[in-house]
Amino acid sequence: MSSMYEEEHFTEYQLQRRILDLQNILIDYGEESQSIIKWPERKEVKFITTRGALQFENSQSKEMRLLREIFSKTQIKASIGIGIGQTANEAELHAREALKKASVNNPSCFVMDLDGTVHGPIGNEIQLCYSIRSDDQRVLEMAKLANLSSSTINRILSFCEAIGKNTFTTKELANGLGITPRSARRILTKLEKVKLATVTGEEQPVHRGRPRQIYSLVLAN
Q1: What does the radius of gyration of the chain's CA atoms come to, in whole angstroms?
Q2: What is the rounded distance in angstroms from the CA atom of residue 20 to the CA atom of residue 25?
Q3: Are residues 96 and 197 in the same domain?
Q4: Same domain, residue pair 115 and 153
Q5: Whose CA is closest to 155, among 190, 185, 193, 120?
Q6: Is residue 168 part of a domain?
Q7: pTM
Q8: For site-directed labelling of 36, which of 18, 81, 139, 170 has its Cα 20 to 30 A away?
Q9: Where does the chain have alpha helices with state H?
Q10: Which residues of the chain carry a pLDDT beneath 50?
Q11: Domain assignment of residue 129, yes or no
């Protein structure tokens, strides 16, 4: 498992105090999870432990409590990437991939399993489960047609499954995938151009503002 944190607008003295608090929190977590702790960089910490010592399935897990405690006591936004592998090297590679995804959604936790399946953000109301690679011919064809990665198509399919429908706004897609609204619009524009998505309605915001287009995705059928 890898953990990364960001430093924001602190004086050097404030930062050093927060880092000391952070180290104590992480040492307590390492002891609780029976982990070997490595500090290869100032902004990254590695924990090496067994899968049985982790409890990342829900919002009450040790890992989610860790994120909340870090922010509560230090105001440092941290992310956790958990990797599971048959070897320590494979687990670390998976943890780094999970950490990349988690760092986009600070503070959050993502998990990459043995087979490359990604789970996250852990503890969120909408939690995705998708593969970063695919041998599904239908997914590969759609990805090629829309000029998107198969991982992106799998994420959208997982999002549709999580919310139980294939219609949503750009904002909902952005929140569900943990990306910016601009990136979500770019994805939907590509899908719309090749008729894998169509605009089927509008949603009026609760407060004043422009109506939001509602998209329907063919790929979720």
Answers
A1: 19
A2: 9
A3: no
A4: no
A5: 120
A6: yes
A7: 0.76
A8: 18
A9: 12-32, 62-74, 88-104, 137-146, 150-163, 170-177, 181-193
A10: 221
A11: no
Residue 60 CA to residue 206 CA, distance in Å, equals: 32
Is the distance from CB of 188 to CB of 170 less than 8 angstroms?
yes
Tokens of 155: 């994420």
Residues 171 and 107 in one domain: no
Is the CB of residue 150 less than 8 Å from the CB of residue 193? no
Q: Exposure of 7 by Cβ count < 10 A (0-12 exposed, 13-18 middle, 19+ buried)?
A: middle
Are the beta carbons of 125 and 79 closer than 8 angstroms? no
Tally of domains within the chain: 2
Could you tell me if 76 and 18 are in contact, meaning their C-beta atoms sit under 8 angstroms apart? Answer: yes
Please tell me whether residues 118 and 155 are part of one structural domain.
no
CATH label of the domain that carries residue 210: 1.10.10.10
Which residue, among 67, 78, 65, has the nearest Cα to 7 in the 3D structure?
Answer: 78
Q: What is the DSSP letter of 130?
A: E
Composition of the chain by helix, strand, coil, percent to 5: 45, 25, 30
- pLDDT digit string, tens, across residues 44-77: 889 998 877 676 666 667 888 888 898 888 888 8
Closest by CA to 132, choosing from 109, 149, 114, is 149
Cβ atoms of residues 191 and 146 within 8 Å: yes
pLDDT in tens, 95-114: 999 998 888 776 788 999 98
